[in-house]
Amino acid sequence: MTGFAFRPRRAIGHLRAADPALAEIIDAVGPFRMELKASRSLFGALAEAIVYQQLSNKAAATIYSRVEALYPRATDGFTPRHILKTPDERLRGCGLSRAKVLAVQDLARRVASGELPTLEQAQALDDAALIERLVQVRGIGRWSAEMFLMFRLGRPDVLPLDDYSLRKAYAKAFRRRALPSPQVLERAGEKWRPYRTVASWYLWRTLETAAVGP
Q: How many angstroms separate the CA atoms of 80 and 108, rounded?
């Protein structure tokens, strides 16, 4: 498994030893099969994240492909310059909402001005510093930044506390009647450090199975 900033086998061994209840979930779910999404650039990854927000994958993929089609010569993907030279109405014509057009334009301006790191530079920043930079972009909140760290950069220790599915998965896996608050989930996740990304992935998988849990 390549691309991760950690060794999955070591992470699973740590989680098993640190939390016997999570170890049972790991056994029930099976091998760690989290996949990273390829990124040509930080701009491309975040532009795609903005387009996909609050849409089904199918609908978002259709809209994103329309945006890409505006730039047939951009064989390596459209760039900030492309977006900044494109009239709003053409972007809206692809199916983007006004809010998403403004967000993608803000992202393009910040990348073009050097305000945001390149993908290579992002790799060298720690989680907190990178999240702080990313959430300055219109339309990129903490959750979107955390998803970027987890599924684009393969960071090992991200626990997205505001993710509804993760809170739901925790309640199911550990047989809680109510969804945990972000604070409760954060305290529960202390024992999973420094591999909370892996713990999160296993908890999410419990939503796909009928009966997984300690």
A: 4
Tell me what pLDDT residue 200 has.
98
Q: What is the pLDDT of residue 1?
A: 39
Give the integer Cα–Cα distance in Å for 138 and 153.
21
Concerning whether 163 is annotated as a catalytic residue, the answer is: yes
**Average pLDDT per consecutive 10 residues, the chain (214 residues; last block may be shorter):** 83 97 96 93 96 94 97 93 98 98 98 96 96 97 97 97 96 93 96 98 88 52
- Report helix angle 196-205 to 164-173, nearest 10: 70
d(CA 100, CA 130): 22
- Supply the DSSP symbol for 75: T
Our CA angle for 167, 187, 168, nearest 5°, is 10
Closest CA relative to residue 194, chosen from 147, 111, 127, 143:
127
b/e map 52-63, b = 16+ CB within 10 Å: bbebeeeebeeb
Catalytic residue selected from 27, 126, 127, 163: 163
192 closest CA partner among 169, 160, 164, 159 = 159
pLDDT at 81: 97
